[in-house]
Design goal:
This protein has a domain of 168 residues. An eight-stranded mixed beta sheet has the order 6-5-4-3-7-8-9-10, with no helix packed on it. It has a five-stranded mixed beta sheet with strand order 2-1-17-18-19, with no helix packed on it. It is mainly beta. It is 10% helix and 48% strand.
Amino acid sequence: MKGKIMRHVVSLCGGATAALLLTGCNPTAGATEYEVIYPSGYSRDSYAYDEKSPIEGSSCYLQWEEADDYKKTYDYDIHILDENGSVLYEYPDMGSKAMRGSVQEDGNTWVCAEHWTAPHHNGYVEGWLKESDLLLIDLSCGEILFQDKAGENEFYLTSNGTRCYFYLPGKEESDKLFGLIKIPAENAVIYYRDTSDWTQKHTVYTFDYVSEPDIDTSNGVLTRIKFYISENQLKVAWTFYESVGNGNWEYLEKKAYEIPLAENAFQ
């Protein structure tokens, strides 16, 4: 009897150890995932590996392709395709495997090429965004009207005219100089940059949390923020992947924030 009990305990410990080892092999385990959902129904998350993606509001597509010197630089080219898949414009060394685009009211198109470092995902995992390239392109001729970068963990959401909106996760309290200087916590925020003064961040909304809202996550196994884009509003929904019975699992919404994005809302 004692031998059976010991074997059972060893079996349980072995399973727990294996689970810990698997978790240890994946540094993104437990991290919050992002998903962007557009009015057309197109969505982008960490598991989207498509070579091309639609430009929201048009019949054109974005396509990435390895640059000629990819083996040395790991750079990608941007192709803009028409509805038949023919290349309209090409922008060498400006792309990535995670790109999104949307047409503005004036017909110009914002393109965001994101550079993520998260293993086992094609980006969209909080804390793993290195930087992003933002381009404003005139689709009628292919001219680049504006080009600049967004920094580490500045997650591009959408654009309204000359404004680009970003979500920045909060930062926990920290210290430096061996604890002599305390750096206070910073809540998560949404802000915009404008082409007229790109270096300036204009806060639109400050959330009531640093890392996540005060909600029950005990039954969830994955956390995902869903960003619903509409013309003049952004919905930020915190969801958790939970069992809904009969062996089915879904992302259940726990808390949502609705934020206006009209240009005259923040004058």
